[in-house]
C-alpha cells in the first residue's frame, strides 16, 4: 500500500536552526564511539539486571552490535578505538551498574564477586568480538608491509 503525500506541504518554519553548527565529516568520532558503547552497555545491562540477576546473553549480543556499529558508522581510524575500548567500557559500565542498579553496593567483596561473575558470563562474547575486531582492524586499516601505528 503506497501513501501519496502532497508535494507542497505547508509545514511551519522553525526559526533559529540556521545558526546551529554543522556536523563536520561523516560518522562518529572516537569519543562518540566510546559514548555509544557506554550508553548501550548501560541500557542493556540495566534491563537485564531488572529482569534477571546479572547481565548475560543480551549484553553479549550488544557487544557484537557495538562492533558492527563502530565499523559502519564510525569515521576512518575509529575502529582501533572501538576494539581497544570495548573491554574497558564493559568493565567500567558493569562496575557502575552492579554497584547502583544491581543492589550490590560498594562493599568490595560483594561487588568484586558480582563483577567477576558478570565478566565470566560475558567472556566468550567479549573474546570473540575482540579477536574479530582486531582481525578486521588489521585487514582494513593496516597496509601490508606497514607497521601499525598504535599511538
UniProtKB/TrEMBL annotation:
This is Unannotated protein. The chain crosses the membrane at residues 32-51, 57-73, 80-102, 122-139. The keyword Transmembrane applies. Keywords: Membrane, Transmembrane, Transmembrane helix.
Amino acid at each position: 500500500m503506497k501513501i501519496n503525500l502532497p508535494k507542497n506541504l505547508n509545514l511551519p518554519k522553525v526559526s533559529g536552526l540556521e545558526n546551529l553548527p554543522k556536523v563536520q565529516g561523516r560518522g562518529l568520532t572516537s569519543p562518540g564511539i566510546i559514548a555509544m558503547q557506554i550508553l548501550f552497555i548501560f541500557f542493556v545491562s540495566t534491563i537485564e539486571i531488572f529482569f534477571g540477576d546479572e547481565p548475560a546473553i543480551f549484553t553479549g549480543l550488544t557487544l557484537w552490535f557495538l562492533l558492527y556499529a563502530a565499523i559502519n558508522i564510525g569515521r576512518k581510524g575509529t575502529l582501533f578505538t572501538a576494539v581497544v575500548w570495548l573491554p574497558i567500557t564493559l568493565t567500567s559500565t558493569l562496575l557502575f551498574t552492579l554497584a547502583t542498579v544491581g543492589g550490590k553496593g560498594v562493599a568490595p567483596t560483594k561487588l568484586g564477586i558480582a563483577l567477576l561473575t558478570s565478566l565470566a558470563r560475558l567472556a566468550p562474547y567479549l573474546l570473540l568480538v575482540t579477536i574479530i575486531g582486531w582481525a578486521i582492524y588489521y585487514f582494513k586499516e593496516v597496509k601490508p608491509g606497514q607497521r601499525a601505528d598504535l599511538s
